[in-house]
Design brief:
four-stranded mixed sheet, HIT family, subunit A, alpha+beta, ten-stranded antiparallel sheet, 341 residues
Length: 341
């Protein structure tokens, strides 16, 4: 195994405290991603708002205008091309999948988790998540079969308005395209370079290194390894690597069950910490000849939905592509290990 460098620079900000006139020091931990060499900042004090139950009450009520609720979803949502799904929409358990009216990729789909209009984070149970993952993977496989030009796929969730979600009715979004997103492209290019230099996949070495250190390793579920990344992309980030898999097309039923159970556990932990909004992204190439990107997933918390909530994405994240978070990943991993057992 090739040693992976976890590079950091701890700097000190110094100022005169107005309360007593004393000079005070504040620590800033700047960390560099071991694959991309991008940086992020651990800045204690940048706290996210936590949940206020009364703010959720309007969203928990039935909404006669919701396009994803029973009675409307079959009337107002589009259907898939016959070459992809002759039945028009893909149904798997409680999940219903159909094309996205706002296509963020050449083949963009929405997968509604349930007919229920509202889910709290603990309501995202493993069976519900498994249905949704199965529907998404079925769609990706059908698109890849129908159009050999597509090269990349992703499974994504924006939950509640602070995450960028436009509708509170729980749903995921599937991305299938000939083009990678910027993050996919950066990770794939860096992973290809790592493989050429060291003769081993980066993600396999990363899991071995993190498990050996133990600081940020959360646990294993089947072939999935759950860690907190050294240089996070967002608050309370959890990173998942599916070992021994080159593309999402190779995922087995057991892999999907592992992902579903792990996601459910992380969401319970997020709920326990007072958060109710999150993002999730699972990415993969589709070409088995280019497996360096692997199958990886990230989850982060966003500001809880509260009256006049503030966004946790500022100039650093949106314009500098640099995250600023409040808690070191080692602390996040310590808390999450309790829910993984």
């Amino acid at each position: 195994m090739v040693p992976i460098e976890f590079r950091r620079d701890v700097v000190t900000a110094r100022f005169v405290n107005p309360a007593g006139g004393e000079i005070e020091d504040r620590r800033l931990d700047i960390r560099f991603d071991p694959l991309l060499h991008t940086s992020s900042r651990i800045a204690p004090g940048v706290r996210l708002p936590t949940a206020q139950p009364e703010a959720l009450l309007p969203l928990q009520q039935p909404d006669p205008t919701c396009p994803f609720c029973p009675g409307r979803v079959e009337k107002v949502t589009p259907t898939l091309l016959p070459a992809i799904a002759p039945e028009g929409r893909i149904r798997c358990g409680e999940t219903l999948l159909f094309p996205n009216l706002v296509p963020y990729s050449q083949y963009a789909a929405v997968a509604v988790f349930s007919s229920r209009h509202w889910l709290s984070l603990p309501d995202f149970t493993p069976p519900l998540l498994l249905d949704n993952l199965n529907a998404a993977l079925s769609y990706i496989r059908r698109v890849a079969q129908a159009d050999r030009s597509v090269r990349y796929a992703a499974y994504n969730v924006n939950y509640l308005y602070p995450s960028g979600g436009s509708l509170p009715h729980p749903h995921s979004q599937v991305y299938v395209d000939r083009h990678a997103t910027t993050m996919m492209r950066l990770q794939e290019d860096a992973a290809v370079s790592y493989l050429a230099r060291h003769g081993r996949p980066f993600w396999e070495d990363l899991v071995d290194e993190e498990e050996g250190r133990g600081e940020r390793f959360i646990g294993r579920l089947g072939r999935t390894a759950w860690i907190t990344p050294f240089a996070p992309l967002g608050f309370n980030e959890v990173r998942v690597i599916v070992r021994g898999v080159g593309t999402v097309l190779e995922l087995t039923d057991a892999d999907l069950r592992s992902l579903a159970h792990g996601i459910a556990r992380v969401l319970i932990a997020y709920d326990d910490q007072g958060y109710n909004s999150f993002n999730l992204a699972l990415s993969s190439a589709l070409d088995p000849a280019r497996p360096a990107l692997g199958v990886t997933m990230s989850m982060i918390t966003r500001s809880a939905l509260v009256p006049y909530y503030r966004s946790d994405a500022m100039y650093l994240e949106r314009l500098h592509w640099e995250a600023a978070v409040d808690r070191p990943p080692e602390e996040v991993a310590r808390d999450l290990r309790t829910v993984f057992g």
